[in-house]
């Protein structure tokens, strides 16, 4: 099993960026003074970024990214799940939003919804797997399933337990649909996506969680009392907790990818640790881990790989939940 990490990061590209072949971005389009798609593509090319994810199927972006070296993940928005669970509607969606652009535009994956299991609209959970099955069926019908995978990003809030990592388990209220989802992934060879933000665990208990532990700085770490595996950072512990949660439902060998992670560069006065300096440290240290091609303690390096995705927007992506009344700045503006 391999692990990929797609990052939503507070990154300033002027601080000494390290280009790596598997680097990518989450390309959010909500914000002000955003560069047009051609400028974004030029920036990605100059930084040797080869992967990107968008939160819709913006035709301007899909057209602009044609005949480039950038692989794209596109999204079926949450409000469309009830529609595309109908196989005919799913086929029409793929014909309209995918077929005109592929293969010139390297669409490699379709994200069906975003954080559906934890969305305020609980009815979406019932639509999720049927929608994924229908979208995948449409890809099969059009001969595209060998090239394009189907999955959905999940919030860490789907976990009932995450500490220690070996205690990882899914919440009972989502376990039935989660099993169906995992079976779909196993059948189609698609990855499990997780949005993991160590910052929020630190923010919730800053006196009990070491800042160095969540920032990948040197620290004593922690040892899982059951597996005796040593963890020197929270992100890897969170990833392994997801793997153990899948084990508990009887699934192994499903690839895990971190679809979002990051650290806020600014927040409200009570947002402990939300500073540009900490954001830079988090990003820089994680990039260095990427350069070393590290694995998590559970997933050995020769079976593990970190695919880094950054965000080029001044606000978090759409559908990204933050506590009411709180303002988080997860991204810096690009600097030329």
From TrEMBL:
Transmembrane segments: none
EC numbers for this chain: 3.2.1.39
Alphabetical list of InterPro entries matching this protein: GH, Glyco_hydro_17, Glyco_hydro_17_plant
UniProt-listed GO biological process terms: carbohydrate metabolic process
The protein's enzyme class: hydrolase
Record keyword Membrane present: no
Protein keywords: Glycosidase, Hydrolase, Signal
Catalytic activity from the UniProt record: Hydrolysis of (1->3)-beta-D-glucosidic linkages in (1->3)-beta-D-glucans
Domain of life: Eukaryota
Family recorded in the similarity comment: Belongs to the glycosyl hydrolase 17 family.
Protein's name according to its UniProt entry: glucan endo-1,3-beta-D-glucosidase
Taxonomic source organism: Gossypium barbadense (Sea Island cotton)
């Amino acid at each position: 099993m391999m692990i990929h990490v797609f990052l939503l990061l507070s990154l300033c590209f002027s601080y000494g960026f390290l280009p790596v072949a598997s680097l990518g971005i989450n390309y959010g389009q909500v914000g002000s003074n955003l560069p047009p798609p051609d400028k974004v593509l030029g920036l990605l090319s100059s930084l040797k970024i080869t992967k990107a994810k968008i939160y819709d199927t913006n035709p301007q972006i899909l057209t602009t990214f044609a005949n480039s070296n950038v692989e794209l993940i596109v999204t079926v928005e949450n409000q469309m799940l009830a529609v595309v669970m109908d196989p005919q509607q799913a086929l029409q969606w793929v014909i309209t939003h995918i077929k005109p652009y592929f293969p010139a535009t390297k669409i490699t994956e379709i994200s069906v919804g975003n954080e559906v299991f934890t969305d305020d609209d609980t009815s979406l959970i019932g639509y999720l797997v049927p929608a994924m099955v229908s979208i995948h069926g449409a890809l099969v019908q059009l001969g595209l399933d060998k090239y394009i995978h189907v999955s959905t990003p999940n919030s860490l809030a789907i976990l009932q337990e995450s500490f220690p990592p070996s205690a990882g388990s899914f919440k009972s209220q989502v376990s039935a649909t989660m099993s169906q989802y995992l079976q779909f992934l196993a059948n189609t060879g698609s990855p499990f996506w997780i949005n993991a933000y160590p910052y929020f665990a630190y923010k919730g208990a800053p006196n009990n969680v070491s800042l160095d532990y969540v920032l990948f700085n040197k620290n004593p770490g922690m040892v899982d009392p059951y597996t005796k595996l040593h963890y020197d950072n929270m992100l890897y512990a969170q990833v392994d907790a997801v793997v153990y949660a899948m084990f508990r439902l009887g699934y192994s060998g499903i690839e895990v990818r971190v679809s979002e992670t990051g650290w806020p560069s600014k927040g409200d006065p009570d947002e402990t640790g939300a500073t540009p300096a900490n954001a830079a440290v988090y990003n820089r240290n994680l990039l260095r881990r990427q350069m070393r091609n590290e694995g998590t303690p559970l997933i050995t390096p020769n079976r593990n790989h970190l695919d880094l995705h950054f965000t080029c927007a001044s606000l978090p992506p759409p559908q990204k939940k933050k506590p009411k009344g709180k303002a988080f700045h997860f991204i810096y503006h690009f600097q030329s």
